[in-house]
Fold this protein.
Amino acid sequence: MQKTNEEHDGWNEYAHKKIYTPRGKIGILRSTGFGMYGFIGSAVGLICYNYISYFYTYFCVLNPLQVAFMLIFGRVLASGVALWIGHFSDSLYKFKFGRKYGRRHFFILMTIPFLVYATLIPITGLNFWYYFITYSVLLAFFNTIHLPWTTLPAEMTDSFKVRTIMGTVRAVVGALLNTIAAFVVAQVLNNWPKNDPKIYLYLQIGLSAVGIVFALITYYTTWEHFVTKNEAALMEAEHKQGENISATRWIRFKETARDYLSIFKIKSFRKHLFIDGADQMAGNLNGLILTYFIVNVLGLNASVTAYLSSLSTFIGIFVMIVAGYVINKYAPRYMYGIAYGMALISCIGFGLLGFIKPDHLVMWLLIVQMFSIFGGQLYGFIPGTVFPSLPVLDTLLTGQNRAGTFSSLAGLFEQGGFVITNILGEGVLQLSGFKSSTTGAVNQSATVQLTLTLLISVGVGFFFLVALYNGLSFKADKPKLDLINNEVSRLKAGGKMSEASNKVKSVTKELTGEDYDSIAVWKK
């Protein structure tokens, strides 16, 4: 009788659901299922991100300052959501629906209504406040709703090698899907009347439908860790709360702030934040300006942006396959040096194109883009591949599994970076005298063209320099993280800290900045 009660107590009865059950070896096919969720970036980003500034200024008569205000407010919302979503995801086991649908898989399901919502964005003929409200909400979730999904490799396996395989396949699958989607978008835009805005809505409806299918594939082909009652009790013991409701809320706020601060103090993760944040800022500013630069400075069709995106991700497939292998053999910092070095060359190339405007512009643009492709695919790939192995450093120091909180803090840095680059890009563009329209692209002044050229070269290049500096000093790699992972496993099995090797102690200091002997959690 007792067994029946335990099975139907609203907790243990969910332990055997498919989302908690490993379904075999994690190989190429399962990693492909995991990676398909990454299409959300293309499903929403191709239209509602890559073309949205162009769409709003040339078909909705909004000026760059209004667009900047929308983007900034949306990113501020996203920063708050990023802080909340990972911590909430980590804590979802406390609720019945969280145990039933999963801490991570619940958010994969929530992607479906989000993709439907995205079809409300590319609509013309409405007022500023409609665009402001709808786009701000979209931005709040576009770069945050996927954060719990990024923790799945850490929940599905303890192996750095397997996680790297999952990260590599995820990146390759995402690149392949984005290549196809971007090429289709480019073809449609190139063959559709360039001053007809309805095509952007039609394309978004199609992309959202495909995105829903891929999200469901990921939901049914992956699993996550089930938090047992015993594990929950241990975690609750770390977060004792007062009886007074107001006091409890204040304690929770302080505990959340303390969690983020303690994670930020981890040396390798702090480096990761600056690397990922800076290259996201560079990529965001480039994406914000690229279509304007192609149309208004180089005089080419807007569809060229989608063609470049398609070419970039197609070539990137091969780059990432090699990169996934190399990361297992060499320290990521060497690859960061190559990636950001090539990205800086592309910045110089964009600047030269804007100033010189040579003959055969498309050919030269492709040459410059090749450097951006190789560099961009690497810097977009490496942080996401390395990241799932970093929470083990926190587990060593605290004994906790806070992968979702790690994702939230990373998301906060990304959103904060987007705010800065949106202010810089749209604000400077407005000050330069940019002209808006409702009927398509218009000729811009020489000042606007100069501003666009400087933003896509000098502005983007500055953020790549910041990422390069932090990337070259990033010390975490496969052997060191495997060593830490093995040590955590030993301590969890009842091993004594006094038996740790000098190598473990030195690597702990190097990667976390903390002395091994100062760790208290395993001394109990």
Remarks:
- The longest helix spans residues 160-191.
